[in-house]
# Entry
Amino acid sequence: MNIATSTPSPVHVLCSKMRDWIFLDALPFWSTTGVDGNLGFVEALDLAGRPRSVGFKRTRVHARQIYVFSHAYTLGYEPGLRAAKNGLDFLIANGWREDGGWVVAMGESGGIVDRDLDLYDQAFVILACAWWVRATGDRDLLRWIDRTLQSIDDHFGRADGEGWRCRARDDGRLLQNPHMHLFEALLALQTVHPTADVARRLEAICRLFSTRLFDPETGTIAEYYDVNWNRLAEREGGHVVEPGHHFEWYWLLRNAEPLTGFNARDAADRLFAFAQRYGVQSETGFIHDELMSDGSIRSARHRSWPQTERLKALLARAECDGAFDQDCVATVLRVLLNRYLGIAPRGCWIDHLDADGQPCVSAIPASTLYHIFLATAELMRLERFWGGESTSHGVV
# Structure
């Protein structure tokens, strides 16, 4: 008797490999080797995958790891909750300034080594806390979220209400990146703690995107602005754009619409098209670190995280428009698995390649796990596009 068998498609095989790498290699590694006893998480590893002392632990890294392991717990990775709680306890004990706000860096054994306040760090703490609440149902942590939102107003508020300063010690320059991650964090918070205050802040960022950040002439978002949200002069970096952030904004804007009602599809499509056209090296699938707003290359090196943002953007297009580009998804996954993950110790990554595609790093930063995990979680959430009707993930 002949038994009909079906051969999985190439994209199915690659998506499955990515999922297995996260749950069988990365999460077990970073929830053990990546945890520093009862002192939270390690900041970085050497190239052999061993913890490396750097003299500090950044708040943003702790927040990212808390997010990862909280989210992973909701997907069936049971050890995630213990790892997240360890990091959360260390962060709360050492990262909060007495006058409000989360510091830039803590000491490796506790205490504070950099008291500055950065909007980027506040955003990631909100993201981490929102996912801890989602994973555990423990709403006691909402008080820390409310305190963080108040500290943002106290230390980063602007009189004109157009976004927020990016550093408490104002350097006269505004950045899109912290606002993008605050948008991400507030969207996560809205799902577990929908309040008028959260909605107001989301609306403010949507308005900022429309009126200040997005440039309809070039179809880009710049990285650097002056205090009035004008792009800085070209010699000061005002026309520097990052294709990875264009993909990331696309994913956020498309996912935000059901929660906020903010329709930015045309602008999002232009961001995506710009990054696809100018940011991706057609022969290799590598993504350039930096471009100029005319599409010319400013930095031909290639970080790992823009690959994950391209993957998220491609998945958002599939979910919102029904356009699942299997070839592009397969390219992203091959590049990630073969050029960034496959050449590193098991569960780790080579984070940066030079213009010739060769590693140009001296350490393995813990911060990268956030990007790779989130992209993989999106793959799993949208498995219907690549894995048939089954929604079983085989997660242990």
Remarks:
- The chain has a mean pLDDT of 95.
- The longest strand covers residues 112-117.
- The chain is about 50% helix and 10% strand.
- The radius of gyration is 20 Å.
